[in-house]
Amino acid sequence: MKSPSLSVKTNRLNVNGMTSALLRKAVLRQLSQLRHGQLVVIEDGERQVFGAREAHLLGEIQILDSAVWGLVAANGSIGAGEAFIHGYWSSPDLTAVVRVMVSNLDVLDAMEGGLARLARPFTQGLHWLNRNTRKGSQKNIAAHYDLGNDLFEEFLDPTMMYSAAQFLTTDDTLEQAQLNKLERICQKLALKPTDHLLEIGTGWGSMALYAAQHYGCKVTTTTLSKEQFAYTEKRIEALGLKDQVTLLLQDYRDLTGQYDKLVSIEMIEAVGHRFLPTYFKQCAHLLKSDGLMLLQAITIREQRFEQAKHSVDFIQRYIFPGGALPCVQNMLQIVSRDTDMNLLHMEDFGLHYARTLRLWHENFRRAHGRLAELGYDEYFLRLWEFYLCYCEGGFMERTIGTAQLLLAKPSAINPPLLGRFSA
């Protein structure tokens, strides 16, 4: 297997003779503005401490190559990620470093300005090319989800759920927490055997299979990933559910029919801001007049939404091309403006995602040797380590969250939210 080509050359700023020492000084000057948490920077035996003298949140960076300063100065947080991928710096606790920076958003924003602002047209141009038209969506989904099922099997739990789990007790394993999530979704939708459930975003099939097996309903599920399609097709056949579960390789915009219930788990991040009205209109159109929709979404804090909407971060640049995080307020505005659905219930469990990511990261690190044997090189492994820790830090500091929204069509009867009961 050929790992993705990772190059920072196209992003490297021509500094016209500015020395590494000057760039280092500029970056350290910005770090001197840290007020929350503490960050220790170690380079050539020299130890510098930034932030609060007494802090519970401690991060440590070890500089291994002075090239890190030019990348951070030129490309901000994207440059920091690129430098990590290339082994220019390391940390004994990468998530803690991310948390310190995220808890000082004013400093992080300043690092995205200055020289880094000059690289913005390049990254925004790449992101525009990755917009989620029908053709663009196929390409963007393939870029992440078609990396290879063997990759995801190495760090996901046996359910193969690639979304936030819900931990009901401190003893819950990752697998149990994912099953908790699936059960809670089914209960919120008040699924019953006579229902026809539509799923937008199949993943590796666990939601569709769980609903069919445990609630006896008919399920139609669609994906754009050829790898996920092939994997799920085998699971359906192995469980003898071909007559109950219909698997499609189709864009959500091309779906037809009428369904009793609709579920979409962390697929909306691949829709893009421009197409959110289209997405919600289509979901409402596909539901019967008494239908229910359960949406699980990674969300960004409302106060950061507009800024994030017009910028590109490390995840969009290297992990999820075309990706965009909505905020709850914006989604509800679109739902009320463009559909006949209304909100019945909402909950945020972002800290559960932080724990999910931590467990994925632990599995991923344990699988390094196996992944190397499968052909994933060191650049790719460091890229994914940065990705997992970057996300965990964001959820820990609540800059991003995970929301489940239960939406109802006009004639829907309010279902019991936390379990089944008899009227």
Automatic annotation (TrEMBL):
The active site is at 391. InterPro entries: CFA/CMAS, CMAS, SAM-dependent_MTases_sf. SUPFAM superfamilies: S-adenosyl-L-methionine-dependent methyltransferases. GO terms for biological process: lipid biosynthetic process; methylation. Keywords: Lipid metabolism, Methyltransferase, S-adenosyl-L-methionine, Transferase. Belongs to the CFA/CMAS family. This is Cyclopropane-fatty-acyl-phospholipid synthase. It comes from Pseudomonas costantinii.
